[in-house]
Amino acid sequence: MRKRVALAATALGRLQIPSWPVEAFIAASILVGAIHAIRPLFPGREAGVAGVFGLGHGMAFSFVLAEMHLSTGQLVTSLLGFNLGIELVQLLLVCLALPSLLVLARLRVQPALRLTGAVLTGIAALG
Question: Quick one: pLDDT at residue 6?
Answer without folding.
Answer: 60
